[in-house]
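ok trying this again, last paste got cut off
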Amino acid sequence: MDAEPRSPAMPGRARRAAVLLVAVLLPGLALAHSPAPPAGPDDVSAAVARVEGTAEAHTRALGWIEGQQDRSQGYAVTFDEAYGVDHVGPVAGRVADVGDLAPVPPPAPVRVAFDRSYDEGHAGPLSGTWAGVDPLAYVVEVAARDGGAPSRHPLEPDGSWTTAPAAAPPGGAWVARLTRTADGAVVATAESPGPPVDGVAVHVFSRTDIDNLQAVVPLRRDGTFRAPLARRGVKIARLVRTGDDRILNSSEWTGAPGIRGLPRSFQIPRDDPDYGYSGDETRRSGYRLEQRSFVYDAAVASLALTAAGRHDRAADILERLAALQGADGALAFSYDVFLGREADRYVRSGALAWVGTAAVEYELATGDRRFRPLAQGLARYLLGRQVTRENGFAADDPRYGSVRGGEGRYGPGYEYIPEEIAWVSTEHNIDAYFFLRDLGYVLGDARLAEAAQAVKRSLLTNHWDAERERFDQGVGDTARALDLVSWGGLFLRAIGRDDLARRQIAHLGEFVPPRAPVALSADPETYNRTYTTSEPIGGYQPYAGSPGTYDDPPATVWGEGTWGAILLRLRLGLEAGHEITDMLRLQAADARGGLLQVTAGRRSPPYEFHVWPALGGTAWAAIVLGGSEVLWRTDGWAGQAVTRHPGPTLGTSAHGSMAALPDRPDPPPRTVATPLRRPVVTSPRRPGTSGPRRGVLSRPRWVVATRRSRALRRPRLPAPPRRAPPSPSRPAGR
């Protein structure tokens, strides 16, 4: 497997003799043309440290990740009291963060105010506060807003006033005036109810078998709302943006205890069109990206925290995931961090492998074995989806040895279709290889080690494009995504094929967009009213043009993917200082320290990239900046036996391989009559769109298509496995 590609014109023995002769006679020439030795962990750390600002950026990235573990939510909606199911009558409540909806000017030095919003129907006394005057020289005059004689009330020394014991003047709306007694001059006024917040309203429901709308009422600038009547049922209040009916928050979430430690995947500005959710009660928990945690993101965050020695925080993530794990070992693709539940059974193998790697690395770093059951359950699920004879597949299956994509997909109308995913992803299988390899070592489990070797063999055989010397996106799927180059190169580097890993550097050139700064945009397609950079940013874009798949890929720098490419360069001993500097500038655009997902958004499917700080990219930054040794070590890293050319442990494949031994005859060409395609999903964005992430590099809005959230990607409809005979129409090794 580690042999150099051979020339068909020179037999292996003669070639080795020629190489030996050159090495003996021309040592200077041989050294001059030898590539730089690959970098070890210390070399990577030293290369990172040479770039100014990396230590501070690492600290800020870790702080941002920990902040995403907090259970905060914007615009929390609460009722003033616990209205029971049988309550029939008025209901009132409050919304937090109203200042983000309608900026509140700083309090004037001289002022008067009501202590709350008194709505129509109030019959008791009125009360409030005052400031900035001599209480002996002023009084508060209270009157109905539509006229009538005012009543006068003294200012209390503690800064309060009240009409008690007198009731409010009749009228349903009132005005309070701070009046100087000497001449009757009014120096400040206040009204109750206060003015409404433009652009939003509160929808009040009573839930029985369905959600019954009771009232649509204004949200006052003091954060209060009141509905005159709500009938029997569970009372729900939702803050709704009136321009597009998007729900910004609901009392349904406010009372939820939350899932401690599970980090939110995105920091979405509250004015963004995609903040909140839309849909009826059957999908009400599904859309909220601002409070969803994609398990791939959570796993990478755990790795970053483990590498930084913040083991308690890393354990918080793994504990939550272990609690959410199903009996079959699987995890959903994402979870709502307040409700925890998944809407449908949507599982992707690559995301599970990342969680498993995080659990293994935590044990290696701490000696704490409590997450072994989590990792063993994940491995059990993946082994059950490996294409092997033991699982009922023929040895000539073009996917033999690979792990299938998972379960569940969505149709064009976003209807959930519960089916096995037949497509096998290169990214998923790179993830699975490292996880199964390392868990097999930790447990001393030969079956896991053999399964990892089968995955490796399939990657080098069924997923490899020998003609172009790069990985396909999946078996029979030639689309070009950045991770196939960067992660593929890291895989090749780890198994000892530095020669082929270096050739991936040339492929990175296919993913270089024009340098550009992060700019503000009000266009819904590229919306960004929050983040900017003064200097242009360079890096790598997520896709290269692939007819029929990525026909018009966005020319935007993708932060997470660029960090993966940086790590490949560093591990190969190559310079990456300019790329690191650009990523530090991209991170600096967020005052909290999160790495923006992209430099320019592309909201429409199949891409769905946004200018938001994203957990996956920030965690990758933290790993490369401060502890990349936790990620995908070289084979044999702990003295394990290294299988240079995997033998037929789980079945002999007839497919061609790039890793053929030097003197082995070339394998026969192989083809798939109708290529297996990756799964496609429609995501419920408006509703019915998708976005970038892993598996296809994009995920639907609230359940991502294949592996994670990256941006959000949409899996394609898988064709059934084919048992096609070999055909000369497809080059060997594909």
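PB: full thing came through this time. Residues 1-36, 281-286, 645-734 have pLDDT under 50 and may be disordered.
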